[in-house]
Amino acid sequence: MIRRIIAVVSRSYYTSRSKKPSLYSKISPLGNPNTSVVPVLDDWVFKGNKLRVAELQRIIRDLRKRSRFSQALQISEWMHNKGVCIFSPTEYAVHLDLIGKVHGFSSAETYFDALKDQHKTNKTYGALLNCYVRQRQTDKALSHLQKMKDLGFASSPLTYNDIMCLYTNIGQHEKVPDVLREMKQNQVLPDNFSYRICINSYGVRSDFGGVERVLKEMETQPNIVMDWNTYSIAANFYIKAGLTRDAVCALRKSEERLDNKDGQGYNHLISLYAQLGLKNEVMRIWDLEKNACKRCINRDFTTLLESLVKLGELDEAEKILKEWESSDNCYDFGIPSIVIIGYSQKGLHEKALAMLEELQNKEKVTTPNCWSIVAGGYIHKGEMEKAFKCFKTALSLYVENKGWKPNAKVIAELLRWIGDNGSVEDAEVLVSLLRNAVPVNRQMYHTLIKTYIRGGKEVDDLLGRMEKDGIDENKETKKIINKKNA
Questions:
Q1: Predicted TM-score (pTM) of this structure
Q2: How far apart (Å, rounded) are the C-alpha atoms in residues 131 and 137?
Q3: H or E element that contains 375
Q4: Which of 75, 174, 437, 480 has its CA 20 to 30 A from that of 265?
Q5: What is the C-alpha separation between 440 and 396, in angstroms, rounded?
Q6: What are the start and end residues of each PPR repeat (predicted)?
Q7: Long-range contacts of range 451-457, CB-CB < 8 Å, 24 or more positions apart?
């Protein structure tokens, strides 16, 4: 389990009129992984700024956490090539790991082979093993592990954890307990992660006796501090197997070990109790979380609302939504959208629409996806005018490359309805909006032709537009036009 530590440092005795930009502040905004950070580093030095190795290492750590591995590797290479610092075993290991992430295990092998013998330490051997594991190179990983054993480098749980992760990733879960046994035989003490991987290996095979044995062994080990995460993993497997009593027992033990102010732990328990259908337990844990954490962030509200919607407790969800609105947390449409989609899934489209319109009236951001979902619901109920209104709003919010694409079935149903019942203006508006989101097609023009004919308008110019768009008349087109002349 990764603990979140927030450090707040106050220096009231010093006030700076202008905060001098740091190297981190120059590199951090360069989020595009294709953007090179080398010019920034060169410019920093050229302008006579101080270069601190500790700061560069901190930047590398930060970039790795944010999966910006290419830029982290650039800084590491720049440090080494410029002689900024003499690499320690840790720096070599980090550099090798980054090469593996960016260029693959073959490049990591080449780098490792070129290292001097004194730099081939347990850290660099471990980093290369991790590269093999990440890319599921079983034979290479096992061969490399044997070399590590021969050199006396397989003395930490991390090494064996890597192999257990490898077997997990390739689906050979039955081999994981054997690795744990070998680990103990070699006098290497398993850590919490070792045991959790083993619990997982039994859980995925529905071997609940194995899960219990590992938990009991953990509880007797003096070097192991039982945490909420371990019991929640077991609880999750019990839930999937329908073992409600065992699941609740594991969740109680998990709750006993929650760290104060650990919102992640509370959220996890809320989700698991929701899977069990236990609304009272969900709300009890929510009350505990509010008391422990003092202030709930958007992630906490998201977890609770998703859980309540899953339970079908939409009235309760709406109360929590009001609580969020009064919390002074920053606005995030993803939170009310949970309830909006929940109402839509229950067929309560009027409530979903009312929420969307309320947010719209307050000039709050909404997304096309929710409007489209509500439109689809109205189509299912045959309320086409409301569906058309919602879908127009969805299309008006469309932004290219933002993940949402109009639903093809909704488009087809609305085009069919407008073609049979709508006005020329309706058809032109819909087709104009659709052009921004999807390629124009024959059905759009057939809808336009139908409304033109019904409205007594000539279609010659319309057929010219159709031709310019590269759409030929077919039998259906001629059939629609001939109805006019019949």
A1: 0.84
A2: 9
A3: helix 368-381
A4: 174
A5: 16
A6: 121-155, 156-190
A7: 451/418, 451/419, 451/422, 451/423, 451/424, 451/426, 451/427, 452/424, 453/480, 453/481, 453/483, 453/484, 455/423, 455/424, 457/424
Positive or negative, the CA dihedral 242, 244, 245, 249 is positive
Q: Which of 149, 153, 179 is CA-nearest to residue 164?
A: 179
Q: Which two tokens stand for residue 128?
A: 């290369």
pLDDT in tens, 213-249: 999 999 999 999 999 999 999 999 999 999 999 999 9
User: What percentage of the chain's residues is helix, strand, coil (to nearest 5)?
Assistant: 70, 0, 30
Packing angle, helices 349-361 and 368-381, rounded to 10: 150
Whether 5 shows a pLDDT value over 60: the answer reads: no
> Angle at Cα 253 formed by Cα 251 and Cα 255, nearest 5°?
70
Token digits for 316? Answer: 């309760």
Closest Cα to residue 448, out of 482, 412, 424? 424
Q: What does the alpha-carbon distance between residue 365 and residue 300 come to, in Å, rounded to a whole number? A: 21
The token pair at 69 is: 């591995």
Nearest to residue 484, comparing CAs of 462, 461, 451, 453? 453
Residue 162 tokens read as 């890597």
Q: How far apart are CA 324 and CA 304, in angstroms?
A: 11
Which amino acid appears at position 194 of this protein? S
Can you count the helices (H) and strands (E) in the chain?
27, 0
The DSSP code sequence of 171-222 is T-GGGHHHHHHHHHHTT----HHHHHHHHHHHHTTT-HHHHHHHHHHHHH-T
Contact 127, 100 (CB under 8 A): yes
The pLDDT tens digits for 297-331 are: 999 999 999 999 999 999 999 999 999 999 989 99
Q: Whole-angstrom Cα distance, residue 291 to residue 18?
A: 39
- Residues 140 and 132 sit within 8 Å (Cβ to Cβ): yes
**How is the chain split into domains, by residue range?**
227-311
Q: Where are the alpha helices (DSSP H) in 422-470?
A: 424-435, 442-454, 460-468
What single-letter DSSP state applies at residue 136?
T
pLDDT at position 482: 85
Where residue 456 falls (left for φ over 0; alpha for ψ -120 to 50; beta otherwise) is left
